[in-house]
Design brief:
alpha+beta, 2 domains, 1 helix, 42% strand
Length: 133
């Protein structure tokens, strides 16, 4: 340990030098703070990138299915007989994937809504006749 001599009036005072150790400890604390901040930044960035990748993946899946769909309503007939009112639809599917018809709207009003068990599979060209309430 080094000792420093200081004159205070006529008396010489010997005291230890401690300035070097405190600056080293302060620098080590700052380095540890910076390392922990960098680690937190890297972890946060990885989580954000994973979330964005998941969102983009689901969006691309939906868009790729939408590109494969192509529906054309060729003719629509409204008919009424003794049994009730009917809508007769001629639908052609030009797309790659099969379509499920789950609802029919006429002039913005819901005329027929099917559930999962009553939805209609449309492959190439189908004629659909549904009763209207």
């Amino acid at each position: 340990m080094k000792v420093e001599a200081m004159e205070s009036g006529n008396v010489i005072v010997w005291r230890p030098i401690s300035r070097g150790i405190s600056s080293i400890v302060a620098n080590m604390v700052l380095v540890l703070i910076m390392i922990s901040a960098g680690t937190l930044l890297v972890a946060w960035t990885e989580m954000s990138i994973d979330d964005v990748q998941d969102d983009i993946g689901s969006w691309l899946t939906v868009r790729s299915e939408a590109v494969q769909e192509s529906l054309n309503v060729e003719m629509v007939y409204f008919r009424e007989d003794i049994e009730g009112k009917y809508i007769l639809l001629y639908i052609r599917n030009y797309g790659v994937i099969d379509l499920n018809l789950s609802a029919v709207y006429v002039n913005g009003a819901l005329e027929w809504a099917g559930s999962e068990s009553t939805s209609i599979q449309i492959s190439e060209k189908d004629v659909i006749s549904k009763a209207v309430d």
